[in-house]
Amino acid sequence: KNDLLSDSIYVQIRSKIISGAWPIGMRLNEKKIADDLFVSRTPVHRALQAIYDEGLLDYSKNWGYFIKVVTKEDIQEIFKIRIALESLAACEAAAKMTEADFAELDKINSDALAAIQNNPNDYHQLYKLSSKFNARINQFCAMPRLRLLQDGIQEYLQHFRTMSFEQNSERRELAVREHQAIVSAMRSRDNTLIYSRVKEHLQHASEYI
C-alpha cells in the first residue's frame, strides 16, 4: 500500500513538472505539497528524491528542491535522442506503409494546416495533431521495443514539443510543412532522405526553445 501511494505521489508531482504546470525554477515545498495531496511528507520526500535522480530537479541544503532550469546541453541531448528514435521509426514505417497509410498522414497534415488558418493562436490543437502524426508513424513502424523507448521519454518529448509550439506562431506552420516533407521522403523509401528531413525538422524545432 505504501509503495502504491509513493508511486501515485511520484506520478502526480512529475506530471506537474513535465507539463509545465509548475514553472521552471519553482521551489517545491514538501510540507505544502503533502498538505495539498492530503498525505504525509514521507511519500512526497521519496517522490522528490526519485525525480531529482532523473535530473528534473536541483537541490540546495538550505532551500530544498527546485525545478531544474533547462540548459542548452539538456536541449541538445533530448533532440539528439529524438533524431535517432524518430528517424528510425520513420524509415521502418516507410518500408511497411501502404498508400492508404500515407494518405492518412497527409490528412493529419492537412487538418493541421486548416487548424492554423482557422485559429493561428490555438497551438493546443496543432500539438494534438502533431502528436497524432508521430503516434501513427510509431504504429506503422511496428517495432514494439522502439515504441517502448519512445514511451519511456514521451513526457520529455511532450514538454519540448509544447515549448517549441508555444514560442513562435511561424514555427507552427513550418513544423507542418516539415511533416509534409517527411511524408514525401517516406513515400520515396529513401532512408538517407528520410533521416535528413527528420533531422532538419528537429533541429529547427530546437531553435525555438
From TrEMBL:
Lineage, opening ranks: Bacteria, Bacillati, Bacillota, Clostridia, Eubacteriales
Name recorded for this polypeptide: Transcriptional regulator, GntR family
Keyword Transcription tagged: yes
Keywords: DNA-binding, Transcription, Transcription regulation
Boundaries of every HTH gntR-type domain copy: 3-70
Pfam families linked: FCD, GntR
GO terms, molecular function: DNA binding; DNA-binding transcription factor activity
InterPro entries (alphabetical): GntR_C (IPR011711), TF_FadR/GntR_C (IPR008920), Tscrpt_reg_HTH_GntR (IPR000524), WH-like_DNA-bd_sf (IPR036388), WH_DNA-bd_sf (IPR036390)
Superkingdom of this protein's organism: Bacteria
Source organism of the structure: Amygdalobacter nucleatus
PANTHER family: HTH-TYPE TRANSCRIPTIONAL REGULATOR LGOR-RELATED, TRANSCRIPTIONAL REGULATOR, GNTR FAMILY
